[in-house]
């Protein structure tokens, strides 16, 4: 449940949590000055926009660089000054990635295409295995046939050598 009593599910849960933590941190930093409060508010607002997939000032990726660009701040403000917000952002991204309903459509489409490619490659592999087995059988048959023909050829040579009535044609050419 969020602050207004509505059920928090899916990809907006991280956004609601970021808003809640942002308000608490802004209140805690109110003693440090208006600049810190403005930075905390900018960061949490940027977190919300990135979590719901509606970036205004960045590429929309769930990275610290995109968060800083979305908040209109330098990255070192997140990595050195507001490390708690950086850690919160990483935790929200990790929690978002663990929920299948929060996976963007592009990632689902890419995963489906990869599954299709994998099925195609497996079918190709199976076909090549079958062709390989067939070729191995053909080679085996040809080797047996070749061996049989060699024996027949040797037998013919032996029979020809035994015959003396066959004239040697090479001697006639030399004359």
Description:
The chain has 2 domains: 12-103, no CATH class; 106-164. 74% of the residues lie in helices and 0% in strands. It contains 7 helices and no strands. The protein has helices at 12-28, 34-52, 64-71, 75-81, 83-97, 105-162, 169-174. Helix 2 (34-52) packs across helix 3 (64-71) and helix 4 (75-81) crosses helix 5. The longest helix is centred in the C-terminal third of the chain and has 58 residues, at 105-162. The protein is rod-shaped, with a radius of gyration of 39 Å. Residues 1-10 have low confidence and may be disordered.
Mean pLDDT: 78
Structural class: mainly alpha
Shape: rod-shaped
Gyration radius over CA: 39 Å
Segments where pLDDT lies below 50 for 5+ residues? Answer: 1-10
Number of DSSP helical runs: 7
Main pleated sheet? none
Strand coverage percent: under 5%
Number of domains: 2
Element-level helix/strand string: HHHHHHH
Can you give the helix content as a percent range? over 70%
Total number of beta strands: 0
Distance between the termini: 115 Å
Kindly list the characteristics that best describe this protein.
single chain; 175 residues; 2 domains
Quick take:
By secondary structure, this protein is mainly α. Helices cover 74% and strands 0% of the residues.
What's the layout of helices and strands?
Elements: H1 12-28, H2 34-52, H3 64-71, H4 75-81, H5 83-97, H6 105-162, H7 169-174
Helix pairs in contact: 1-2, 1-5, 2-3, 2-5, 3-4, 4-5
């Amino acid at each position: 449940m969020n602050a207004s009593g509505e059920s928090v599910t899916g990809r907006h849960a991280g956004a609601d949590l970021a808003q809640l933590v942002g308000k608490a941190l802004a209140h805690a930093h109110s003693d440090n000055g208006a600049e810190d409060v403005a930075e905390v508010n900018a960061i949490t607002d940027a977190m919300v926009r990135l979590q719901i997939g509606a970036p205004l000032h960045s590429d929309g990726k769930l990275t610290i660089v995109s968060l800083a660009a979305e908040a209109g701040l330098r990255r070192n403000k997140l990595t050195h000054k507001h490390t708690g917000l950086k850690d919160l952002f990483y935790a929200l991204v990790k929690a978002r990635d663990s929920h299948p309903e929060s996976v963007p459509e592009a990632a689902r489409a890419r995963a489906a295409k990869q599954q299709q490619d994998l099925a195609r490659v497996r079918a190709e592999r199976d076909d090549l295995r079958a062709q390989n087995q067939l070729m191995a059988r053909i080679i085996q048959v040809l080797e047996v046939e070749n061996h049989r023909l060699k024996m027949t050829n040797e037998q013919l040579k032996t029979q020809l050598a035994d015959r003396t009535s066959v004239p040697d044609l090479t001697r006639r050419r030399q004359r």
